[in-house]
Amino acid sequence: MPENANIxxxxxxxxxxxxxxxxxxxxxxxxxxxxxxMQPYGKLEIDPAAGVLNYGQGIFExxxxxxxxxxxxxxxRPDENARRFQRGAARLGMPPVPESMFxxxxxxxxxxxxxxxxxxxxxALYIRPVLxxxxxxxxxxxxxxxxxxxxxxxxxxxxxxxxxxxxxxxxDEYHRAAPGGSGGVKAIGNYAPGMMPSKxxxxxxxxxxxxxxxxxxxxxxxxxxxxxxxxxNKKIHTPELTGTILPGITRDSIIQLAKHxxxxxxxxxxxxxFAMEADEAFCCGTAAVISPIGSITQGDKEKVYLNRxxxxxxxxxxxxxxxIQSQKEEDVFSWLHKVPLEIPLNLV
Length: 348
Prior knowledge:
D-amino Acid Aminotransferase, Chain A, domain 1; 8-stranded antiparallel β-sheet; alpha+beta; 17 strands; 21% helix
């Protein structure tokens, strides 16, 4: 296996680059998962009547492997991804992947493609576990069989040139999720409906859309595919988890980190009017970690935060969280999971 991939690390963007290996496992409905295999990255055969193609029976996760300043390859809270993956599978009527199998698959794929991991501080290896209903089914019902796949791609820093503020617009027309739906899981069908509103927002010069609740049309839920936070008088506010908001792992990490630093964090219903009176705001997710918000527009009203400068609390949390992920700071929460690179791979 080569020591380094032939990649210009400084030119990497957050996009897809083909790597060498992926993990694939299969399961029949009602039967236990069979141990999967590593195989060359490539196309998969799928039946035209597959449940995922016809009825959207599928979920995914987003994770990263970092090369730390200490020379280790580490994952960030993979157990939480595994558990969220299980909850999502159960919600969509799919057989949950055991946590140990999930983490073993991720470790194998990272180890097999370790030469694609950028040097510390120059990017990460993005990890995409997916679970699809791949068996043929006619009629809205669970697929008879399933495929669990893990693939990876090297990605550059989300912010080229450093952390910068983004401008957002509140959507009064479109909603991301409704009570009782699948908004609280990473279902593949949750993402396509947001592509058109996002594209339209970008045409107007905004980075992304803020979605409000589908009942009262006044409570902030998510920023595109990211969780929302705002700060007022050094108190941190974020929308509470009601089943319509994805329980983000970065979100939970920020809450724990902020409380550890002595800040008060309130999980509650966040009115758009309150957010537009806050002192600073940011959103978070696996890709960007934390994105500072420079402004929010709703109709003819615009709120500009700190003259579009990064808020002090936003920067503090970003710096601390990324320092833990890169082992520049002590991992007092035991969030990091070291990947053993010399592990036996079940190759086919």
